[in-house]
Amino acid sequence: MSENIFNFSAGPAAIPKSVIKKITSKIIDFDNGMSILEISHRSKKFKEYAQRSQSSLRRLLNIDDNYEVLFLQGGATHQFTMIPQNFSNNGIADYLITGGWSKKAAAYAQYHTRVNVVSDSSDTNFTNISDKSTWNIFPDSDYFFYCANETVHGVEIHEDIDINAPLICDMSSTLCTRPINISNFDLLFAGAQKNLGIAGLTIVLARKEFIKNQGTQLSPIMRYEDHSNDNSMLNTSPVFAWYVAGLVFEWIEEQGGLKKMANSNKLKSKLLYDYIDQSDLYNNPIKPKYRSWINIPFTLSIKNLDDEFLTLAEKSGLYNLKGHRTVGGMRASVYNAMPIEGVERLISFMKDFENRQ
Ligand code: PMP
Question: Which atom of ligand 1 is nearest to the CA of 147?
Fold first, then answer.
C-alpha cells in the first residue's frame, strides 16, 4: 500500500508497511530459490519458521506450556462449529450476545448443542451490555462463550469476565491489540485478517487439559486434540498466511509489545471518539464503557450524505470507511497497523467535511 493511503477496513485489514516489504522479497526466494508461495508446510525451513512464529506469539501473550497454540484453517466462523462439537458434554452452553458475531456463533452452536442465551443486547441495537448481575447463567453449562470485540457493532468488553464455567472467547479483532490474561480462558481464537496478517489462518489458544479427550466421536479434522497432536499440520497448513502472521508477531515485538499496542490503540480511538462526541454531524451510539478501541462505527446526522462522505474520503486517500451492510453508516477500523497519522488525517478530513455542510 502506498505511503499516502490509509486503509480503515475491518478485515482483510491494513498490514504494517515494513511487513509488506519483507514479504515482497520472500515471494521470490524463501528457501534455496523457492518462493514462500510454493514451499511445503513439511519442509525443514518452514517447520523451523513455524516454531519461531509460535515462540514469538508465546512471548507476546505470555502463554505458558499449559496452553496449546494452534494455527488452523477455516476462519473464525469454523470455530463457531468446532467449539460446540468438541465441548458439548452436558449438552448446554452459555452464550453472551453482544453483537452480530456472538449472535452468529450462538446460531451456529444450535446445530450441536442447546444454547442458553445469558443476555442479548439486540434490544439496544447492540449499543450496550446488560449488567452481569442480570445475566441468566446456566449452572451446569459446558462452557461460556462471548466475543471480546464485536467488529461490526464496535462493542468491546474491556474487563475480564469472571465465570465458573470454562471460558471461551472470540478474539478475532482484539487478539494482540492489548495484553490479556491467558489463564482466564480455556480456549480463545482469532481469524488472522485483522491484527495478525491475512485471511486463511485462525489462531487458537487452548488449555491442554480442556481439549484433552474431547469430541472423541468426531473425525480428526474437527478435533482440537488431533490438531494439537499433529502440531497444526494434520492437513496442509496455510503456509503463506502463517508466514505473514509470524512477521506480524515480530513486528509487534519490535514495536515494544502489547502494552505499546494497547497505548496506541487506546489513544487513536480516544482521538476519534473525542472528535465525534463534540461534533454535530457525527455520532457514535455505543455506551462509552463498551466502546471498541479498534472498530469505531459512526453515523452522519444529515440524511443522504454517506455516499459523498465516502467518495471524498477516498479522494483524500482514506479507504474502506463504509460501515457493515447490516448497520450502515461508517466504520473506521484502527487496528495495530493503523498509524496515528492515519487517524489524524481522518479527523482532519471529517472536520473539513463537517465545516462544508
Ligand atoms: N468473529 C469476529 C469477531 C469477526 O470480526 C469475524 C470476521 N469479521 C469473524 C468472527 C468471522 O471470521 P471469518 O470470516 O474468518 O470466518
Answer: 3
Pick the residue whose CA is nearest to atom 14 on ligand 1: 75
Residues 13, 334: Cα–Cα separation, whole Å: 9
- Residue 1: is its pLDDT beyond 80? no
Residues with CB under 6 A from ligand 1: 11, 75-77, 101, 147, 151, 170, 172-173, 191
The three cell numbers locating residue 184: 482466564
Query: pLDDT grade, residue 2 (50/70/90)?
Result: low
Contact (CB, 8 A) for 191 and 199: yes
pLDDT of residue 25: 87
- Rounded to whole angstroms, how far apart are CA atoms 353 and 247? 37
Find the mean pLDDT for residues 146-175: 97
* Residues 82-92, mean pLDDT to the nearest whole number: 97
Choosing from 71, 172, 204 the residue with most ligand 1 atoms within 8 A of its CB, the one to mutate for a pocket test is 172
**24 alpha carbon to ligand 1 midpoint, in Å?**
27
List of residues 6+ apart from 85 with CB closer than 8 A:
112, 215, 218, 222
DSSP 289: G
H helices, E strands: number in the chain: 10, 14
Cβ atoms of 294 and 173 closer than 8 Å: yes
Compute the distance between CA of residue 28 and CA of residue 16 in angstroms, rounded to an integer: 20
Residue 221 carries which DSSP code?
G
Percentage of the residues of the chain whose pLDDT score is greater than 90: 97
336 phi and psi, to 5 degrees? Answer: -50, -40
Q: What mean pLDDT is predicted for residues 262-267?
A: 98
pTM exceeds 0.90, yes or no = yes
State the Cα–Cα distance between residues 55 and 53, nearest whole angstrom.
Answer: 5
Confidence class for position 241, pLDDT limits 50, 70, 90: very high
Give the whole-angstrom CA distance, residue 311 versus residue 353.
Answer: 11
Average pLDDT value for residue range 246-264: 98
The C-alpha atoms of residue 357 and residue 353 are separated, in whole angstroms, by 7
Which residue's alpha carbon is at the smallest distance from atom 12 of ligand 1? Answer: 76
The span from the CA of 134 to the CA of 105, in Å, is 22
Report the alpha-carbon distance of residue 182 to residue 108 in Å, rounded: 25
